[in-house]
Amino acid sequence: MKEYIVETRSLKKYYQMGENTVKALDGVDFCVKDQEFVAIIGKSGSGKSTLLHMLGGLDVPTEGEVLVEGKCLLGLKKEQLAIFRRRKIGFIFQNYNLIESLTIKNNILFSLRLNKVDQQTQLEKLNELTKMLNIEEIIDKYPSQCSGGQQQRVALARALASKPAIIFADEPTGNLDAKSSKEVVDLLKIAQRKYHETVILVTHDQEIASIADRVITIEDGKIIQDTNHI
Ligand code: ADP
Ligand code: MG
Questions:
Q1: How many angstroms separate the CA atoms of 27 and 149, rounded?
Q2: What is the pLDDT of residue 67?
Q3: Beta strands 20-33 and 89-92: pairing type?
Q4: What residues have a C-beta under 5 A from ligand 2, the ion?
């Protein structure tokens, strides 16, 4: 096992907006250890989502590198990158991103089916995750019939189902009330410990960030504080 599961080197992402260059990321260097729970905190527009997109291979940097398990993402071909995302990465978004036309059960099992996991294993996984996340009662419903907190717990189940190496969560509590927010992050922490996941969670909320082992603060596309280096 490599010492670091995620590494960035002088990571930059610039957007050209007419005459202006928006420096969404302006030289970001950090390393995340396997099974670490890291929160990235910063104001709106500080570059948090851009950073997660680069780390998860959803977008390419202007300059610099992202390494996952020691492998440089820029070196991967399109299909390799798609496989990397499917096998290694779980994403959780602010707006849940569930497939509206599928039941909760089929949303959770979606990636297992793509990966041709056998029926028995699928059902065992479904039972285990829905029990842990307290969503057993809603598996035959559709996303629009569920509350925000329930939908985000489903998104968490879906992310966990394929046993990714890393879970990226972008403002997962952004649309939730305080009680549901606490439930979701507590469950994320429980799941992270139970399944030995690495989690990188983006938030603008200090209280949500406080459940992480380590908090990195980002401002104007740069890391300005890292609790690892105090
Ligand atoms: P955060 O997630 O912290 O709110 P973002 O990463 O979404 O911040 O954005 C960082 C900066 O980059 C902002 O100034 C934003 O307007 C800009 N930005 C993000 N995506 C784009 C894009 N596709 N085109 C132009 N500018 C962008
Ligand atoms: Mg964002």
A1: 35
A2: 95
A3: unpaired
A4: 49
